[in-house]
Amino acid sequence: MRKKIVAGNWKMNMDVQGTENLLNALKSESLAADVTVMVAPTFVNLSAAKQQLSETEVEVIAQNMHFAESGAYTGEISAAMLQAIGIKTVILGHSERRSYFGETDEILEKKVSQAIDKGLQVMFCFGEELADRKSGAHFNVVASQLKNALFALPKTAWSQIILAYEPVWAIGTGETASAEQAQDMHAFIRKTISEAYDATTAEQLSILYGGSVKPGNAQEIFSKPDVDGGLIGGAALVASDFAAIVNAFN
Ligand code: 13P
């Protein structure tokens, strides 16, 4: 059985007080026990969030990390620093990192490889832009993002990978991929992994959908056979909405 996962990517939102308030609100919600729930506050609030959630099943994850061990990389955070505060999972490859901070497939390959080597679980994000979808290039774009950043990994590394397909045109826009578009892409992704590795690796892999997931559309999207959960932006900042999404599996 593949893991069902709902993760909240808080992006650059919530200061220390906002983080505490949102986590308190989340702790008062009841969350489906068979769903792995994750939240990704900003770096400065990771430690406090870990403490606040220590008696819950909710996992605190990081939004990014650097590929180097340590050294002269002003403003960056290493895998070891995350691990030292008990973080086990890191989001890599988010489209905002790619478009605003110049993260290329080549950089992401290094980041993924460092995270895996250090024993972190990687939630790897990727997805096409609107122009790719309009020109019909979306499957090719996604295949090359996966190949360039991930396919040098050994098969054993895939137990540490979660994929998050996030079409850029659906992020923060209120426009969601239809459940059918999500399913078509997720099935394609699983087939691509199966061809590059093997069927078992592909079958065991959790593939999340991200992009304007809300309480009102989560159930339909999550009902699709190759959609194993969601990576949630805006709706993760409202505890009741996030809880409703966590509880939206049939
Ligand atoms: P929204 O849910 O706000 O569209 O953001 C999706 C996202 O980018 C999650 O990483």
Describe this structure in words.
- There is one protein chain.
- The protein is 42% helix and 15% strand.
- The protein is an alpha/beta fold and 250 residues long.
- Helix 1 (16-27) packs across helix 11 and helix 10 (215-222) runs parallel beside helix 11 (239-246).
- The two termini are 15 Å apart.
- 42% of the residues are buried.
- The structure holds 1,3-dihydroxyacetonephosphate.
- Residues 9, 94, 166, 171-172, 210-213, 231-235 line the site of 1,3-dihydroxyacetonephosphate.
- The site of 1,3-dihydroxyacetonephosphate has 14 residues, from strand 8.
Observed structural traits:
250 residues; alpha/beta; eight-stranded parallel beta sheet; 8 strands; binds 1,3-dihydroxyacetonephosphate
Mean pLDDT, to the nearest integer, reads 97
Could you say which overall geometry the principal axes of the C-alpha atoms support?
globular
Order of helices and strands: EHEHEHEHHEHHEHHEHEH
Structural class: alpha/beta
> How helix-rich are the residues, as a percent range?
40-55%
Rounded to the nearest angstrom, the distance between the terminal CA atoms is 15 Å
The largest beta-sheet arranges its strands as 3-2-1-8-7-6-5-4
Summarize the structure.
By secondary structure, the chain is α/β, with parallel strands linked by helices. The protein contains eleven helices and eight strands.
